[in-house]
Amino acid sequence: MSGTRLTGAVRTYPRRSPLTLGYVGLLLLTHAWITYGLTAARADSVLRYISTDLDNLADHPLTALLGSALFFDGTLTDVTSLYFPATVITLGIGVCCCLAWAERRWGPLRAFAVFLASHIGTTLLTAAVIALALRQGWYADDVRRTLDFGISYGAQTMMAAATPALPRRARLPWAVFVVAWPFGGAEWEGPLPDFTTVGHVLAAALGFTLALPPVARRLVRRPTPAGTEGDRLARSGRSAS
């Protein structure tokens, strides 16, 4: 992208993707609140309450699922941390770029409905995998209470769904990157990697399904042609005269 196009994209971002911009602002506010506004003990208490671990999903599923989508798990300041690249990928690429693209292409309400549905659906599918793995002895029992929150599953789905927006020659490398990056820090326990890696793979599969042409065509917003309402009224007036 040329400098002029990039400048234009940044300048028109608030007008073209207002819901995404507002959501990013909210995520930054909650991150600042949890990082700087609360004591470490209080912040841990809040995050543990909105964690989508198995115990919380059994006790207060709605609060956990919706509350988890209000935070991102990462860092914006510690560039030497292994969490920083993940933040750039999920918040920077997945939400700021790919969710914004979906908002422009699908419309704001549909884009955010898909984002939230992917966040919830992938979380629940991952919970089912965890339950199965516990029964098989593949995961340790304390995984039931492992802290798990954030936007990364929804962001991963948006990254995969945005594949058709890329030039054809870039689509396969992009798809490989989307599937592969979660394995960078994967920990294997038996035949499965850790559950967050499983969740990201499931989220990517959902996003690639949304990118299939028959599905993608259904998601595209159908713009109302300018003047349609006026033309209808004009025709009505002519027929009545």
Task: Write up what this structure looks like.
There is one protein chain. This protein has 241 residues and is mostly helical. It has a single domain (13-221), classed as Rhomboid-like fold. Helix content is 71%, strand content 2%. The chain has helices spanning 3-16, 18-37, 40-50, 54-59, 61-68, 83-106, 108-136, 152-161, 168-180, 195-211, 213-219, 228-240, and strands spanning 188-189, 192-193. Strands 1-2 form a two-stranded antiparallel sheet. Helix 2 packs antiparallel against helix 6 and helix 8 runs parallel beside helix 10 (195-211). The longest helix is centred in the middle third of the chain and has 29 residues, at 108-136. The chain is globular and about 50 Å long. It starts with a helix and ends with a helix. Residues 226-241 have low confidence and may be disordered.
CATH architecture: Up-down Bundle
Basic shape = globular
**Straight-line distance between termini:** 54 Å
- By CATH, the topology is Rhomboid-like fold
SSE run: HHHHHHHHHEEHHH
**Overall pLDDT level:** 90
How many domains, in number, for the residues? 1
Helix content: over 70%
Text of the CATH class? Mainly Alpha
Task: Report the count of strand segments.
Answer: 2
Question: How many helical stretches?
Answer: 12
- Rg over CA atoms: 21 Å
Approximately what portion of the residues adopt beta-strand conformation?
under 5%
Q: Main beta sheet: strand number and arrangement?
A: 2 strands, antiparallel
Please list the strands of the largest sheet in the order they lie side by side. Answer: 1-2
The computed structural class is: mainly alpha
Ranges where pLDDT stays below 50 over 5 or more residues in a row are 226-241
